[in-house]
Amino acid sequence: MPVQVKPMIAEAFIRLSKQKNIDKITVKDLVEACGISRQTFYYHFQDILEVIEWSLDQAFSHLLEQSLAADDPEAVLRGFLETSEESAELLQKLLHSQKREQVERLLVRHRRHAAGGYRRHRLSRLLAQYLRQASACGCPTKSTLKEGG
To answer: Could you tell me the CA-to-CA distances from 59 to 7, 55, 65, 90, 99 in Å, in that order?
Structure first.
């Protein structure tokens, strides 16, 4: 089974962040922790900030998938709070690092993207539910109006 290098590098970053200041983590630290070459690191990431960005992308994608699979807003909120609690230490370290400004921009961008995805998904589910109900009661829908007109 091939090794997934990006997740391995991201996990190494998280492990190292528990041991030392985020601003002190170097590419050399990551390649040594992963047992890969610098060339392999740079094949996958431009720099450490890109590792952080990729990690946030993955975390928010996972959170969005969980939100979309949830049946009610309470479950969505519970998932968000659990993820926030699990990530609190790392987020605090990131926000107290020299990369704070970039991390804040990434967090805002991901929050907007996740909120928009959640709203679009819920809207499409509501529309599908409405169309099923309208069709069941014989009410006109856009498709039945086109067929008749």
So the answer is: 11, 6, 10, 12, 18
Tokens, residue 45? 């990431």
Per the confidence metrics, is the pTM higher than 0.90?
A: no
Nearest to 27 by CA among 52, 2, 55, 58: 52
Give the three-state DSSP class for 138: coil
Q: Are 117 and 63 in contact (CB under 8 A)?
A: no
- DSSP, residue by residue, 93-104: HHHTSTTHHHHH
In the predicted model, what is the mean pLDDT of the chain?
81
Tokens matching residue 7: 């997740």
Query: Which tens digits make up the pLDDT trace of 120-136?
Result: 666 666 666 666 666 67
